[in-house]
Amino acid sequence: MEASHQSGHDPQWIPSGIAADVEIGAACRISESANLYGCRIGEGSRVGAFVEIQRGVSVGRHCKVSSHSFLCEGVTLEDGVFIGHGVMFTNDRHPRALNAAGEPAGPGDWNCEETVVEAGASIGSGAVLRGGIRIGRGAMIGAGSVVLHDVPAGAVAAGNPARILRGDAT
Predict the structure, then answer these.
(1) Residue 127 near residue 144, CB atoms below 8 Å
(2) Among 118, 107, 48, which residue's Cα sits nearest to residue 78?
(3) pTM beyond 0.85
């Protein structure tokens, strides 16, 4: 079941997986089973089932985030971005459960790598994107790709690791 929400309306409608601190633009569609907290969802965007969008993420206007995708802290989607099913963003190039002292790692024990997906770009289903990269305006990432480096505007990239296959996606 999907719900529609417009900013400023009664928070009673908000599905249980959406925290009170989420900013939701007008005419958004968000699945009941989505898990969103501390993020911003732009006007007219759609968020599918079993999607998690973490604190600090910004989703632009008229984006589509398909089911089972994960957008972690540090991710920015500009306007009109398409995210396929099961896309995983990462934000830490050196993840550890314990810090140097052998204690559970905390907020000061890692470096959040920011990722930007520019306007009109498309990320195919099952892609994994390493933190700290930029996907250029209108670029296309093939399904199942592992993206380790920036992809220029208009390019088509695919593979593991992803390589530029074509310089202009239009």
Answers:
(1) yes
(2) 118
(3) yes
User: What tens-digit pLDDT sequence spans the chain (170 residues)?
Assistant: 344 444 444 444 456 689 999 999 999 999 989 999 999 999 999 999 999 999 999 999 999 999 999 999 999 999 999 999 999 999 999 999 999 999 999 988 999 999 999 999 999 999 999 999 999 999 999 999 999 999 999 999 999 999 999 886 55
> What is the number of other CB atoms lying within 10 angstroms of the CB of residue 144?
16
> What single DSSP character describes residue 17?
T
19-92+111-166: CATH topology is UDP N-Acetylglucosamine Acyltransferase; domain 1 (2.160.10)
3-state SS track over 61-73: CCCEECCCCEECC
Three-state SS for 81-131 is CEECCCCEECCCCCCCCECCCCCECCHHHCCCCCEEECCCCEECCCCEECC
